[in-house]
Design brief:
The chain has 7 helices and 12 strands. It is an alpha+beta fold. It has 2 domains: 56-223, Beta-Lactamase (2-Layer Sandwich), CATH 3.30.450; 229-335. The chain is elongated and about 90 Å long. The model is unreliable at 122-127, 135-144 and 332-341 (pLDDT under 50).
Length: 341
């Protein structure tokens, strides 16, 4: 038996093929853009929760007194400490908080929520709250937040303790209106991240910056989004990649990148969770390379036939503009299937 395509049949096949591929590519782009917006909203919810705490009057008044005359007495800090604990306790996903001075060298307060105490295993009666002058050094020693990963706290990355490209300074935090550290994995299903934001003076306008607040939070809003496969085919998943730097920020803006630049899997892909926090050269991930290096007018793009870093053929929808500052990019990733018409 022979199969012969006439010009008319061939034209119809080409038309149908193009229609199917265009529809598929459009779907990939739309899903990538939709997931991007969801990720932005999740990050914004968490950061706004942290920023709202910095405006609390009791905290600000205590910081003003500390900056003006070095006030560290219990009378000055006990009520603000309770206020910090109450503010964090009203948000189910906030775990631990540390309040720092303007130089990021002294921890003035540490507070751990009931959720955080369960995670870290500390005693809520003895160690959940800490003042700067506590004998146990729970307040002023940044290691006082026992049970939580040090990498979630900005003082881990001071110039004297870390390499130059990963240091975190007050200037860097101010320039970016805050930084995100993590996420870090506690177990296969639980992740933590932190937000460090400046405390801006709204009590006394004689000086602007009062200090910095670091809040450790559950990353559940983000991991639930990545784990959701609604709208995907049976092989689809969401990939979030970012700079391989502790603060999730490229050292330069715009970044100068080459194919050997390492990028990091920021969140655990639902079908390949072992990729979390691993790195891959930018040149090995074509969609990420396009997203990071090409400024396209339309933020959501696609590629019908490309390969992932593992060499598998895939179809990809990706967002070419950064999700959060110059930090994270989102890629909707789907194994390629042969089109049959």
């Amino acid at each position: 038996m022979k199969c012969i395509l006439t010009p008319k049949n061939l034209l119809q096949w080409i038309t149908n093929y193009r229609y199917v591929t265009d529809q598929r590519l459009s779907r990939l782009s739309l899903i990538a853009d939709f997931k991007c917006q969801q990720l932005v909203q999740s990050i914004t919810i968490l950061q706004n929760s942290v920023v709202s705490i910095t405006s609390r009057v009791l905290l600000q008044r205590a910081l003003v007194q500390y900056n003006q005359n070095g006030q560290t007495s219990n009378a000055t800090w006990e009520i603000p400490l309770d206020d910090l604990a109450i503010a964090m306790g009203t948000q189910n996903y906030l775990v631990q908080g540390s309040l720092y001075d303007r130089n990021l060298t002294t921890s003035l307060l540490n507070a751990t929520t009931a959720l955080g105490a369960r995670i870290s295993g500390i005693s809520t009666q003895n160690n959940s709250l800490g003042l700067i002058n506590d004998d146990a050094a729970q307040g002023h020693n940044w290691n006082g937040h026992a049970g939580f990963p040090d990498t979630l706290y900005p003082t881990t990355y001071l110039p004297s303790q870390y390499d130059q490209v990963n240091i975190i300074t007050p200037e860097i935090i101010l320039k970016n209106n805050g930084i995100i550290l993590g996420p870090v994995r506690l177990n296969d299903s639980y992740y933590l991240m932190s937000f460090t934001v400046p405390v801006i003076n709204n009590v006394d306008t004689s000086f602007n910056l009062l200090g910095f607040l670091t809040i450790v939070a559950e990353a559940k809003l983000l991991t639930d989004l990545v784990n959701s496969t609604q709208g995907y085919d049976s092989t689809g998943e969401m990939i979030v990649v970012g700079p391989n730097f502790a603060n999730n920020i490229w050292p330069t803006e715009p970044p100068t990148l080459d194919n050997d630049e390492l990028i990091r899997y920021v969140l655990p892909p639902t079908r390949h969770p072992s990729l979390f926090n691993t790195t891959v050269p930018l040149g090995d991930f074509h969609a990420a390379e396009l997203a990071f290096t090409i400024g396209l007018p339309d933020p959501s793009q696609n590629a019908l036939n490309t390969r992932d870093p593992q060499g598998e053929r895939v179809s990809v929808g990706y967002v070419s503009n950064p999700v959060y500052g110059n930090r994270l990019h989102i890629t909707k990733f789907q194994a390629d299937m042969e089109l049959q018409i």
